[in-house]
Specification:
Layout: E1 2-5, H1 7-23, H2 26-45, E2 51-52, E3 57-61, E4 67-73, E5 77-85
Parallel strand pairs: 1-5
Antiparallel strand pairs: 2-3, 3-4, 4-5
Helix pairs in contact: 1-2
């Protein structure tokens, strides 16, 4: 099993990396990316771990950073739809498929 990123999720990650690079430095930005990749690998191995939400989606939090990964399990992969800061409105990017 593998994972694929929605283009919007790629944008979400890029925005988070820019923010952490500017506000806290490249080491923190790299830690964010490593944590995201750790969670993505975990969800590939155990796609049922996340909390079920609507429209066959699940959410799973990053451990150190205040972000949620919103994803869907497909036949042979997971699709990461949103990487959302937890203080954003829950409806942020809700139309992504």
């Amino acid at each position: 099993m593998t994972y694929a990123l929605h283009p919007g999720a790629e944008h979400d990650i890029a925005n988070a990396l820019d923010f952490y690079s500017e506000q806290a430095g490249s080491v923190v930005a790299e830690c964010f990316l490593e944590e995201f990749e750790r969670v993505a690998r975990l969800l590939v191995e155990h796609p049922g771990l996340g909390t079920p939400t609507t429209r066959e989606r699940r959410t799973f939090p990053l451990k150190v950073f205040p972000y949620l990964v919103v994803y869907r399990k497909l036949e042979s992969s997971i699709r990461i739809l949103i990487v959302r800061h937890q203080h954003r409105k829950p409806s942020y990017a809700g139309g992504r498929r």
